[in-house]
TrEMBL record:
The keyword Oxidoreductase applies. Transmembrane segments: none annotated. The active site is at C263. It comes from Insolitispirillum peregrinum. This is UDP-glucose 6-dehydrogenase.
Amino acid sequence: MRIAMIGTGYVGLVSGACFSEFGVEVVCVDKDESKIERLLRGEIPIYEPGLDKLVTSNAEAGRLSFTTDLKEAVKGADAVFIAVGTPTRRGGGHADLSYVYAAAREIAEAMDGYTVVVTKSTVPVGTGREVERVIRETRPDAEFDVVSNPEFLREGSAINDFMRPDRVVIGAETDRAREVMRTLYRPLFLIETPILFTSLETSELTKYAANTFLAAKITFINEMADLCEKVGADVHDVAKGIGLDGRIGKKFLHPGPGYGGSCFPKDTLALVQTARDSGAPLRIIETVVDINAKRKRQMADRIVEFCGGSMQGKTVAILGLTFKPNTDDMRDSPSLDIVPALIDAGATVRAYDPEGMDEAKKHLDGVVYCSGAYEAMDGADALVILTEWNEFRSLNLTRVKSLLKEPAMVDLRNIYDPKQMADQGFRYQCVGRPLRKAD
Ligand code: UDX
């Protein structure tokens, strides 16, 4: 089996490396020459645990290669995966598909013999059908099938998610295409992973339905956390109490500063647009989008209030800038709303993130970037935890106390225990859990 992976972004690179680990011969293609040069030198452009090893070992074994030459990669490939970016288009929530269609055209020109063209990027319902049309228009004689095969990878655990997924969804409408996909995913058949074959449209919608459902689940628990604060209940116990009901499930019920990342914000917006355009508006998801956007701004207000209502002359230490741990990704991270709001309110912000500093510097101005957690909190009026990196879970609280002007912490990820913090003499604020006064 030989495949070409068009686009070496997050999805393309992880999927390409994982397919090569399955024993498939993979050629990863990107227009960006410097990126390909770096990959050829074994440099991985993103931070994803385990990815560097996987890329290096498969490249050394000759199963994984990188090129800017799309034509050469597509020629003779059994399947070509489109894994290019689909950013949100300006002036609305629609996904910008120009890169997808441009790739489809180039693939069509280069194909020889029967080829399965797979959309791996998250694309709106109907895109596969349009890719089909574009290819047929470019090469009326071509022998091909278009397949939709969405990824459900989480940043930070993408390799495990690929190798041991809950399920694989494949929108393939001919036996020939289904057979190619079955062969590619053979190792997953062996571990009895459910593989769902559907139509193109169903597969495309399934991806959006999954992400918007999860975004709604998080938003539900975030609102429940706010209610817990008002009535004196503990949202962690509520989450456990409902999550043990198999119909609900216990995952994605952790409250926080609002969801971010490369998928949920973009996909919720895109599905809202698709639904409106189709005359079947998804009012629940519209509300989810609205609540989540407001929540990130409310988190800044919460910090200001915690600091006594004014940030003039105050210094805040921020731990964690990425949208989640184990990634350097800053896309739609709550920090992008919270940090500027604190600076606008007059605060000095000292920040540290284990992997996200380079990315953060591109997006957040006016921040004092520090080289460690303790350096960030030195002389600060309050400490704010924005991302739940492991190294922030076990801070030496005695040292924290000695560095801060007063022991005060806003923990927007609930990684500390309110009782323990009170016992340690901290003024402590978290999300949706009853507080105890410091002695
Ligand atoms: C998500 C989907 O999980 C994945 O299947 C899809 O392919 C891509 O989008 P990812 O964005 O990498 O993955 O991260 P995820 O772990 O899902 O977290 C997304 C956001 O939700 C983060 O901002 C995270 O902090 C937040 N979140 C997640 C919560 O606030 N609470 C939770 O309980 C879970």
